[in-house]
Write a structure and sequence with these properties.
Blueprint lengths: L29 H7 L6 E4 L2 E4 H17 L7 E5 L4 H12 L3 E5 L5 H10 L4 E5 L3 H10 L4 E5 L6 E2 L23 E8 L2 E8 H15 L6 E4 L5 H14 L2 E4 L13 E2 L5 E2 L10
Parallel strand pairs: 1-11, 3-4, 3-5, 4-8, 5-6, 6-7, 10-11, 10-12
Antiparallel strand pairs: 1-2, 8-9, 12-13
Helix pairs in contact: 1-2, 2-3, 4-5, 6-7
């Protein structure tokens, strides 16, 4: 995109870009936006967990820096083994924020398919929920994965919290890193083996913009995501909800905020939920 010249008198000082859209990755600039606009609020909820949107965004930035310190490079593939949950989303945004390619594994895929796609994409790192750590360690034996990082304590894995330790030199994450050809890797098994498809940042941002125009989310919305729908759309929808200040419930068993109902569902195609009018008898 070119830079146009502004005619007329110029104000002194540095003109900062607007932060109405993601910068670099789907969460690039989100932390600053939420700090500047605390009224947006928003939460992301899973089974037994609830985190404020600002805390979630800040954790993504800190974890992205942690991956950078551990030697992760642009376009590296990182596998993610977790059900649809705040942890799965946190891992996906973290990988993309540091310039990597997130490979969320379907928990319904068989071990052979999961191992095959990890080997095919040359993934060296796997982020998992603690309950799936035994499966992740077995997958590491079947592929070139050399490190398994778990949300929680699990024997043979590195705790995710280690990524959140301060950098010794203060360097690491910067949201512009997401401008590299990163994104989400989808996969399917074909007669020729497993086939991987990259959904780059441009594709994800296109979905983000389309959903913003179609759904017109507000801070009053409750967005529910589960195993239905495709991964790129789900990730773009949750990012949009976080930017808008809406509440996200991730996973089929995630509890709703007290006194509120789901207003948007991420089905194969995200839709608004029509609720009966008060007093309608339905």
């Amino acid at each position: 995109m070119g830079v146009g010249l502004i005619s007329g008198p110029q104000r002194p000082g540095r003109h900062l870009p607007r932060r109405d859209d993601p910068i670099g990755s789907l969460t690039g600039g989100l932390c600053e936006r939420l700090r500047l606009r605390p009224a947006l609020g928003g939460t992301i909820r899973g089974r037994g967990s609830r985190v404020e949107a600002l805390t979630f965004a800040a954790t993504v930035e800190r974890a992205a820096a942690g991956l950078s310190h551990r030697g992760m490079c642009f376009s590296d593939v990182v596998g993610i083994l977790a059900p649809v949950s705040p942890e799965r989303l946190l891992a996906t945004y973290t990988v993309m924020s540091v310039g990597g390619r997130a490979l969320p594994l379907s928990t319904s895929s068989d071990l052979e398919t999961q191992g095959a796609i990890l080997a095919e994409t040359d993934a060296r790192l796997l982020l998992v929920t603690a309950d799936l750590a035994p499966t992740a360690l077995e997958l590491a034996e079947r592929s070139r994965v050399r490190q398994v990082i778990a949300f929680g304590d699990a024997l043979g894995t590195t705790p995710f919290d280690e990524l959140l330790r301060p950098s010794p030199d203060g360097s690491g994450y910067h949201p512009s890193r997401g401008l590299f050809d990163n994104g989400i890797l989808g996969y399917e098994r074909t007669s020729d083996g497993v086939l991987a498809t990259l959904y780059p940042h441009s594709d994800l941002m296109g979905r983000f913009s389309l959903l913003r125009d179609r759904l017109a989310l507000s801070a009053d919305d409750v967005v529910a995501v589960d195993e239905r729908g495709d991964e790129p759309t789900r990730v773009a929808l949750v990012a949009l909800a976080l930017w808008t200040g809406a509440c996200v419930v991730a996973g089929a068993d995630a509890p709703l905020p007290e006194g509120r109902r789901v207003t948007v569902l991420c089905e194969p195609d995200p839709v608004r939920v029509a609720h009966p009018a008060p007093g309608s008898g339905r």
